[in-house]
Structure formats: structure tokens, C-alpha cells
Amino acid sequence: MEHAIGSIAQIPPGEGRNFDVGGLRVAVFHTRSGKVFATQADCPHRGGPLADGLTDEDSVVCPLHDRVYAFATGAGIGTDCSIATYAVRVDQGTILLQT
Amino acid sequence: MAKQSPKQSLVVVGNGMAGARAMEEVLARGGADMFDITMFGEEPYGNYNRIMLSNVLSGVQHSSEIFINPVSWYEENGIALHLGAKVTGIDRASRMVQSADGTRARYDVLLIATGSRAFIPPMNGLNKANGVMKDGIFGFRTIDDCDAIVATAKASRRAVVIGGGLLGLEAARGLLNHGCEVHVVHIGKHLMEAQLDTTGGGMLRAAMQKMGVHIHLEHATDEILGEDRVTGLRFKDGSTLECDMVVVAAGIRPNAEIGRSAGLTVERAIVVDNHMRSVDDMNVYVVGECAQHRGKVYGLVAPLWDQAKVFADQVTRANRDAAYHGSKLATKLKVMGVELASMGLTEPEDERDEVIQFSEARHGTYKKLIVREGRLVGAMLMGDISKAAYLMQAFDRDSPLPDERLSLLFDLGTPAQKVTLDEMPADAQVCNCNGVTKAAIGACVAGGARTPKAVMGATRAGMGCGSCKSLVGEVVAWFCGGAAEEDPSVHYYVPSIPLAKPELVAAIRAQNLRSVSAVFAALAVDGKPDAASKPALASLLITLWDDAYEDERDARFINDRVHANIQKDGTFSVVPEMKGGVTTPDELMRIAQVAVKYNVPLVKLTGGQRIDLVGIAKEDLPRVWADLDMPAGSAWGKSYRTCKSCIGTEFCRFGLGDSMGLAAKIETKFRGIDSPGKLKLATAGCPRNCSEAMVKDVGAVAIGDDRWEIYVGGAAGSQVRKGDVLCTVTGEDAVMRITGRFMQWYRENAKFKERTHTFIERMGIERARAVVVDDSDGIAAALDAAMDASCAVTRDVWRERSAPKTAHQFASLIPAE
């Protein structure tokens, strides 16, 4: 189902934030070019908070041990781990997340 | 059964180094068009380099760094991979393999590559009452073993390794790094009997004892003491040794049971012919440590690579003449920092055998050769292994040795390296781990790879144990006619922008680029941001532009976004400023109140003479800072961190200079300035150096009469290096000026994350002295001005508590609306 989880203004460009979506923690990222992506909150490697990671247009780097994940697929880059992703879009400034 | 696919089905039991390497060889021979490949692995991981587990144990490498083939490699090559799936049965009549998780796979061709496991010798009291092994006892064979050993070692006072062979000594070396007392218990008369004789073993023992490892020879373990958890060992002679953990490295045993249950001939391992095929079944092949060929079972990688090639040649029909004729074992290794090479016999066995030896115990050098009828049948080299490559080749080919025996041990009138490479035969192996010959490197260079990095990537030479990397570089240079091209990217300041730091600085200034996103747009190859490059660029821009820098918080590591140091559970540590380690009762009371109010799980003194409040939730940071009402200690970033001090002249009866006062001045001035790497300083009131100023990035040591020695490039972290004396100056003002000037020179010229100890070795202390003290380049005034400008605009970032910089800056979870 689709959840309206709030305004995109809550996520500064280039950063991520964790949202509580009905008890599920989801990391939502807002790239500098305006794209949004959503992934599981914790890195599968050692549980690092992905929303605190460095990002670019395609990927996020876990802040604990630099594991890199592709936003589009959740696939690990140079690592065996991979993460779950969620469909997400912005409509009139509101983030709409599919779970 | 009717075939569904025109391809044959190839099933591999075992996903270790042998199984995966065999598949690489099959794919390299066009095997993807011939076979549907299915692999079963008992471990839940892709394929990793087991040789490197000793590095993981010692903390030199993370376990994620030793993977050879990640899971994606299997996908890309169309291999169906079943992980965590131990194969429990092979039905040769129906050609069916079944695993513990219920998966079944039919094969036309089966490869067994189950390797081996740690051998746990029979000991009393090994198990708990319920039959499970007692806690605190480990094998040393897998990533999971390593992780478990590391976790336990951290909390252990004393660790015992059973087994004084190569594996045991590597385990001992790794354990030393985790701070526990390490004992090696060995049943034999000397260490590493397979590779060394009594003299060599004795020298190795001395070297290890010097490093703090306790060695117990001729001790057979009779009983493991302790109820459910090991508390000690009892030996056959009745003596005991208390300990908190035991690592058993007493050898390996082939995992051959699967062969026995399938009705294959198994002696010590599964018996194969020269094609690596089971002697009982045309469709079943075996490679690696679970295979027995001509009565021999091998436990090293080089034979395994040869076996994998023969298997692949046979199964793909690329070369039906391919055959394995056994391997002569020669190894080069480094044990506890001692370089060793060993091959063949360790003692003469025949009257004809001639022994040539040299020993110099003081330098830990020992060389011994055993020659039979002019041919090398055994050799060991310790300490100096410069002749190893030549001897290993002579041993491997059984080639005649020169009459001048001394030249076998030493380079007499050393021929130039170039001559040696000219003479090196084309089929000589350069990389023993991956079986890469001089000719293979030549072919790769001819194919366009002109850098050592490119050649290593393509051939995997140097990618095993890494000991041949420099030789690979030399061979590449030789093929390039003396000058290998350097990979230019090693000089880039960040990976995504093809410019070294000076050119990058020039471009940023010329184009007036003041934010990280502007730098990417103007200078990155594709104009796009790159996550990994952001913090390095942010650091550089701050140094260049001071307050004219456009602060984009997404460009900064999380620590610099929230001004605290992230911990492994996602909480943060908070370190308030405490100038020179000096505090007051009032500050201590506030810190204590905060610790109570926020239920801070850990209050810890840091190495920088400050107090660390560890385990604070992100959302509590602003309130913690407000309640502390102290400035930030800048303990989280690549920046000026701290200046330690001793009590100097105030109370100390030896003090020659006011180290506390000077430290406070340094802290006040340089607090929080960004830099390429951490800057940790100290001041010492006399050369007794209680504050350890000689091993700091910058340290000032009072020597009397208001004179101070300034040390730079010291380190006492992962590297330990005594700093170099930059100069001796008179007066605290001069200390402040030289300190600031040196740090600014470092800020402008160092690579990102390059600490001063590396920087000073790269630049040279003479160069540092010329620029910073003697102003050889005429830039001293400019450096001073730049540093003053940076200091002037540095603010206490904890003030962001009342004026957050970004939306939800300190939120760790935002409720959905």
C-alpha cells in the first residue's frame, strides 16, 4: 500500500532521513538532482544507519564500514550484502512510499 | 531421463578456493556454452581467499576485503549458487546430488571440491555434558572462525594456540594484536617441522619469544579443563596452563566423507587419476585438498591451481592431453615478521646428500641447502630470502646447480636486476599463488596493459598473498622496455576528478568553485557527484575558502553533519573541549549531571586527555551540548583535535617550560580547523616527555631557558614513529607561529587522510625545514596569513544546537505524517 509520509522538504538535498512508516523504519534519500529513493534503514553488514551515509545520484555509502549500495536495485557494489528497496515518488511535494 | 537442455549439467560440491577456481578455468575455456553450472557451498558466503584469514585475524584486513568472487560474479556467469547448503548425499546411480536444505541437482559431470577442515585432536574434556564442544575452543579455518576468535580474544586475558605449525603461528600472530597473552603449545621438538630443521625452528622460536609469544614445546594436551567453558589445559606430563580461550591449529583433515558415502575409493582423501578424475567413476572429478593424487594430499594453493587447470582442460575438451603429475612443494611466507622460504627436504636423507649452510643467529639469518648429485632437493631460507626465486626454480625443474656453491646462498658480485630478468625463462612463475608466468605477464603487456595495476587486475598476479607484488612491477617494467607507465589515477586527489591536488586547487581557484556540487559540475569527468569523493573535496574547499566556502552538509561525513563521532550502534560520542587536559570541578559536575540525566552508557577518558560521553542518541545531541555548556572538543573529524600537556612548571619539580599554558594557547587558537587528516598535538614541560609530545603530529618540548624543540610527523597509532625535530625556537610565540605554519603547509599539500607521519616521509624533513623554518620558497608569510584567516573564522559548531543547519539535522527517526 502507498503511504504519504510527509513533505520532501524534510530531507535536505543529497541526504537521507529515517521515517517510521507504521512501525517499519525506512531510509528515504533525496538526491541533489531531486530524485527520491527508499531502502531498508540498517546496513545488512553490521547494522549501520544508511540514512546517515554519503550519497550521490546512484548510491549510498554506509557510514560505518563504507559498504556501497545502488539505490535503484539495492545491490551491493563490491560487497556481498544487498538491501531491500521500496518504490517511492514525490507528488506535489509529498513523499509517497509503497510498502 | 530426457535432457531438457542441450547443455550438460555440471555440479560442483564445494565453493572454496578450489571449486571456484576450477569454474573460472572452465569459463575461460568457453564452458558457459557447454554446461549449466550449479554450485553448492556450505559457508554462507561467496568465494574468499582462505590464505588471507591470518590477515583478518590480525586485523590487517577486514573479512570483506578477502573475497575473490562475490555473489554477483556467480550471477553474471550464469552459475546457480546454493549457499549455506552442505551436500549430504551423492547418488551415483541416478547422478543426483542432495543438500541438507533439501535441494536436489542432477549432474552429467560432478566436481567434488570440499577441501578440508580443522583437525581437532582427541582430548579429554573437549565437550560439555551434552556433547557440544566447550565454549572458548575454536578451529581456524573459516571467516566465521576468525570472527568468533576476534570477538573472544578481546575479552580474554590469555589465549593458547595448540599447534606450532604454520597455521598455529599465524593464529598466534593474529591473537597478539588483540591484546591478550599468547601461548603456543606444540607437541613436536621444534616449530614448523614441515618446513624447518632444528636450527631454523630454534631461531624462529627465539624471534617469536622476543615478540612476546610464549612457546611450550614437546607438550601434548591431555585434557581441556573447565565446566562448560575452557579455563585451562592439562598436559600429558601433568602440568597445567590456565587460559580463557583455545585455538586449535593442529592440522587439517580432508572432507572426504562425501566420497566414501558415494562409494568412491577413499584413502587419506578421494583417490584420483592424472586427469583429476575419481578412479571409480568417469563422471566424477575431484580437486583440491580433498583429492589424493599418487598417494599425496596437498594443503597449499599452488597444486590446487594446477589441478583446476587440468580438470578444466579435460572437462571442456580444450586439451585432452592435459595431465597432472604432482607438485613439488615450495613456499615463501612471512611468520611473525620473519621471512621464510622452504622447499623439499629439511634434513639430508642419503649418504650422497651434500649440505651447504650459513647461520648468523644475531641477525636471524639462516640458510641451508641440501644438494643431491648436483641438484637441489631441499632448501630453507630465513631472514634473507633474496635467493628464493632462483632456488625455487632450480628445485622445481631439477636443473643442475653451478659448481660455485657459495653463489647459491649469496649474490656474489651481484648481477643487476635487469640481467636477472633478462635471464629469467619465459615460463618461470612470477606469482606462485596464482600461477602467473613471466610469459603471461608479457602477453598481458603486449595486449595493452602498461601498468602494474592493469596487469595485476588482468592476470591476478600479485593478488594472492601479495609477496610478489614488487617483482610483478619489475617484470611489467622490463616488458615495457624499462619504464612501466604509472597508473595516473594514483595521483588524483579524488577518484572522480582526474587532477592531482595542485592542479585541482588551481582549477578551483581559477573557476571560483566554492561548493562541492560546483566542483563536480565543473570538473568531474561526467559532471556527476560521487559519494566517495565528497568529504575530501569539502575538506579542501574549506581550507581554500575559509568562510567563503559554501557549506553543503550532504558533502560531509555524518560526524561533520552532527559534530559528534558515530559509534557502531549508530549512537554518538560527545567530547567537550578540555584545553591541555585541564578541567575544573564545576565542569566535572556538569559532565556528571549530563551523564546521569541522559543515562550515558559509557564515560571514558580519551587518549587526548579529555572526557568522552559515549552512546548518546542523535536527537539528544543538541540538549546534551546545551546542558554541558562547554565548547566542542572537535573529536570527530579530519581536523585539529587536541593538544595534550603535562603539568609543566606549575607543580612539577622537573618542569622547564609552561606546557599547560602553551597547550591552552594552542587549543584556543587552532580549535576545530579542518585539515586533510587528524592533527593531534602535545606540549611537554621537559624532555621526560610525559605528554608523549615526541610521537604527535606536532609536539613542543621545553628544554629550558624558554627554548622549545618542535617535533613533527610523530605517530603512536596504527603506525608508531618518533617525530623529527623541525627546529628549536625561543619563546611560546615562536612555537605558535612555527606550529601554525607547519600545519598550514600540511593542509595545503597533504593528500586527504594522509597523516603527518606519512606526509613528512613523502616530503622529507629537510624540505619541511627549508619551507617552514628557513622560508626557502618565500611563502612563510602567506602560510601564516592563511592559517590566521582560517582560525579567525572557525566557530564553535555546537552552537548549531539552537540554530540547526538542515531539516531534521539531529533526528534519527521521523514519524510519518
Helix content of chain A: under 10%
**End-to-end span of chain B in angstroms?**
60 Å
| Name of the CATH class of chain A | Mainly Beta
Tally of contiguous helical segments of chain B: 25
CATH topology descriptor of the domain at 639-799 in chain B: Sulfite Reductase Hemoprotein, domain 1
Keywords:
heterodimer, A: 99 residues, mainly beta, Rieske Iron-sulfur Protein, four-stranded antiparallel sheet, B: 817 residues, alpha/beta, FAD/NAD(P)-binding domain, Arc Repressor Mutant, subunit A, five-stranded parallel sheet, 41 strands
Textual characterization of the structure:
The complex is a heterodimer of chains A (99) and B (817). Chain A is mainly beta and 99 residues long. Chain A is built from no helices and eleven strands. Chain A has strands at 2-7, 15-21, 24-30, 36-40, 54-55, 59-61, 68-70, 76-77, 85-86, 88-91, 94-98. In chain A, the strands form three sheets. A four-stranded antiparallel sheet of chain A has the order 2-3-4-9, with no helix packed on it. Chain A has a four-stranded antiparallel sheet with strand order 5-6-7-8, with no helix packed on it. Chain A is globular and about 35 Å long. The mean pLDDT of chain A is 95. In chain B, α12 (438-446) packs across α14. Chain B is α/β, with parallel strands linked by helices. In chain B, the strands form twelve sheets. A five-stranded parallel sheet of chain B has the order 5-2-1-9-21. Chain B has a five-stranded parallel sheet with strand order 11-18-12-13-14. Chain B has a five-stranded antiparallel sheet with strand order 23-24-27-26-25. Among the domains of chain B are: 8-50 and 63-116 and 254-315, FAD/NAD(P)-binding domain, CATH 3.50.50; 137-250, FAD/NAD(P)-binding domain (3-Layer(bba) Sandwich); 416-486, Arc Repressor Mutant, subunit A; 491-556, no CATH class; 639-799, Sulfite Reductase Hemoprotein, domain 1 (2-Layer Sandwich). The interface between A and B is large, with 44 and 37 residues. β2 (15-21) of chain A pairs parallel with β41 (814-815) of chain B.
